[in-house]
């Protein structure tokens, strides 16, 4: 089986479990038209990656008090994140000044942006710096402070002060979750403070969020979807929230499946 087909099926498993509290291997096999044995193999690997929990014959997404480690997160919704990154690339011109936040979706955006020329990028993400190393004419500034080894980023007072020194065209950032009322959530107050610092230094604020983050109930809230300028997501947004976004001048971009 082709690797893309395998990853796409596992992305769909994550999406189905994000929409349902729990599903059995049989229910997933019926939804995806593959054998129960194939689904069980997928669930074993997703369980090993700390993305799915199997118990009493059903599988559900892991709900945690802190985010899962960086490398397992890169595997979650991989193809969807690639589509998001391509859509973001089309929003960024050559020569733009950009602030990049943390997380695997933003790292994917950085990899796509590496084909743009003469960018200035300020970031607190170590993987984003690595992704931009071959970008033609790029100038990259990395925040100082203590590294979170689990997440490969820098947050805290030094990072907040770092972003306050810049004025950029675009801020590209993610979050821990989106609740049903449209509030933008994170796992702790350090992450919400970092997101505020990044958004405060930009003329245009772009939130990138994969569909698995919709409906998550996390402890820390700052901003709502309509507080930003552009939302790039394939997640399902209710008509009421879409209307609030439209009233506030917030544009919702839905990446194409074939991107």
Which architecture of the largest domain does the CATH hierarchy give at level 2?
3-Layer(aba) Sandwich
Question: What's the main sheet like?
Answer: 7 strands, parallel
- CATH structural class of the largest domain: Alpha Beta
Low-confidence stretches: none
The strands making up the biggest β-sheet line up spatially as 6-5-4-9-12-14-15
Which structural class do you get from the secondary structure elements? alpha/beta
| CATH topology-level fold name of the largest domain | Rossmann fold
Q: What is the terminal separation in angstroms?
A: 21 Å
Helix-strand topology string: HEHHEEHHEHEHEEEHEEEHEEEHE
Question: What is the CA-based Rg, rounded?
Answer: 18 Å
Approximate shape = globular
Say how many strands there are: 15
Helix run count: 10
> Level of helix content?
25-40%
For the residues shown, what is the average pLDDT? 88
Q: How many distinct folded domains?
A: 2
- DSSP strand content: 15-25%
Question: Any overview of this molecule?
Answer:
There is one protein chain. The protein has 259 residues and is α/β, with parallel strands linked by helices. It folds into two domains: 3-63, Winged helix-like DNA-binding domain superfamily/Winged helix DNA-binding domain (Arc Repressor Mutant, subunit A); 72-253, 3-Layer(aba) Sandwich (Rossmann fold), CATH 3.40.50.1360. Helix content is 39%, strand content 22%. It has ten helices and 15 strands. The chain has helices spanning 3-19, 25-32, 36-48, 70-75, 78-89, 104-113, 126-131, 157-164, 189-200, 239-248; strands spanning 23-24, 52-55, 58-61, 97-100, 120-123, 139-142, 147-148, 153-154, 168-173, 177-178, 183-186, 202-208, 220-224, 230-232, 251-253. The strands form four sheets. A seven-stranded parallel β-sheet has the order 6-5-4-9-12-14-15, with helices on both faces. The protein has a three-stranded antiparallel β-sheet with strand order 1-3-2. It is globular and about 55 Å long. It starts with a helix and ends in a 6-residue tail after the last strand.
């Amino acid at each position: 089986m082709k690797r893309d087909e395998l990853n796409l099926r596992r992305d769909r498993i994550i999406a189905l479990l994000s929409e349902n509290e729990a599903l059995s291997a049989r229910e997933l096999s019926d939804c995806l038209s593959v054998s129960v044995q194939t689904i069980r193999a997928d669930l074993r690997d997703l369980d090993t990656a700390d993305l799915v929990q199997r118990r009493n014959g059903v599988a559900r997404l892991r709900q945690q008090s802190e985010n899962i480690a960086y490398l397992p997160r890169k595997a979650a919704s991989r193809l969807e994140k690639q589509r998001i990154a391509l859509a973001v690339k089309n929003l960024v011109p050559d020569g733009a000044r950009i602030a990049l936040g943390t997380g695997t979706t933003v790292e994917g955006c950085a990899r796509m942006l590496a084909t743009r020329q003469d960018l200035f990028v300020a970031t607190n993400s170590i993987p984003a710096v690595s992704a931009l190393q071959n970008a033609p004419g790029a100038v990259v500034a990395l925040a100082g402070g203590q590294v979170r080894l689990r997440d490969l980023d820098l947050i805290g007072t030094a990072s907040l002060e770092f972003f306050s020194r810049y004025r950029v065209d675009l801020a590209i950032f993610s979050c821990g979750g989106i609740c049903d009322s449209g509030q933008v959530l994170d796992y702790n107050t350090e992450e919400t403070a970092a997101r505020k610092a990044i958004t405060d230094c930009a003329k245009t604020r772009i939130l990138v969020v994969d569909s698995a983050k919709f409906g998550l109930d996390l402890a820390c809230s700052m901003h709502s979807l309509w507080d930003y300028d552009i939302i790039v997501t394939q997640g399902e947004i209710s008509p009421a929230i879409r209307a609030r976004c439209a009233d506030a001048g917030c544009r919702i971009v839905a990446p194409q499946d074939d991107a």
